[in-house]
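Q: My labmate handed me this sequence with no annotations at all. I'd like to see what the chain might look like in three dimensions before we decide whether it's worth expressing. Could you predict it?
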Amino acid sequence: MPPIPPYVLALDVGSTSIRARLYDSHAQLIERVGHEIRRSASTNGLEDPEQLRQMCETVISKTLKEAGPACSDIAGVGMACFVGNVVGVDAAGNAVTPLYTYAHSGSGTEVEQIKQIVDVDATHEATGAPLHTSYQAPRLLWIKNHQPEEFARAARWIDLGAYLYRRWFGASEVPSGYSVASWSGMLDRKSLEWYQPLIEAIGLDAATLPPLADYSDGLQGLAEPHRSDWGPLADVPFFLAVGDGAGANIGSGRCTQGTAVLTVGTTGAMRAVVRMEDSPIPPGLWAYRIDRELSLLGGAVTDGGSMLDWLHQTLRLTGERIMDVELETVEPDGHGLTVLPFLRGERSPGWASDASATWHGINASTTPADMGRAAIEAITYRFALIAQLLDRSGTEFTEIIVGGAAILRLPTWLQMVADATGKRVVASPERGTTARGIAVLALNALELMDSLDVEPATGERVEYHPDSAAHDTYRLAMERQQDLYARLIGT
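A: Here is what I predict for the chain of 491 residues:
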């Protein structure tokens, strides 16, 4: 079907790529219109916000150029960002700190300090997020403790999306959307206000946090030079940024109909869309807002595709990182190894900030393929534990839609997820689920769509069904991993 205007521009700011895409009024991708910049994620959790801004501006400019006359039919712009980021700005909106990301993990001591002040369980229930180094409260306290001059220079602490909009619109005040604010771990998910006990615990002036709004409360009226450079966008609404995970779930299709979504890129997360404001959050999981009505319930791991990169570099292998043909040479749990896959600490379900990686059982006959298969299985077991917690929460899902370049290139990994979870797995036919989800959200905000439950993207549906023998093998291997976890990290 040919594209049907009006169109929306989707800006997807990820950890390792920044891309812009154009979608029509039915959330169909307009082929050959868009631009992407690949980048390397920071290894220390610090990014240059100005460099990211310039990359975003480049992909928008080049996408508009490729769109040609179709630019005049763009009705709105949506954005998703990698979340758990914060930057300090002065009164004029200029960055006075680096952009701190979720990967900045030095705040373990601050986590413990906060735990001595607040009610840990009540905080998890209120914010939807456990106290952990990947969230903002301990990170802001770390800056206050270790970079006091930097902390004092900041008039505001804002997310990357708000930073970009302040620059593009010349605005002195840009709200954080509920979605991004929720991912900070500092939003009261019921009142939709900043959670005061955390603010007080870290000694933060509440006036330094931005106002809050729904993603649909966008900005219009670009400032120069962007008004001239991006003429077709000069007066269209730019909707507030949402978390990239929210975009991925919505873009996968049928997001509220018995489906969970697993995305594996540099990191990995399994999430289901729920309405659960009054339901308790199971220990081990988080709950983040999408908007006023919907939330995401799920869990995440810090090392997904990054584990494969690390193995490739550490073992000094040549060519591409591990390939499917290599994984197939090793039977399920046929390597004799038990792995704790925590290169950068653990998030779900144990949230052990200081956890480290372990390969137990290596001997002289262990091969790179053994180590690669064992590491991927170990990550998969963490996803299976998250799936079990989702089941126990009452979240009913029968299939898992899987996306992300790290996993889609490895069919053996997709089968592994089906076998370990006991669920039907569907390889997403859409290679840009986050961007598509942004488009769906923007179209809803423009009242061009009346539901987030769009049909899955067009393309071949490839399914993986669990094998009972492999499921039993992985169940025993998961028990072995949990036993090693208990011995080395804790219960």
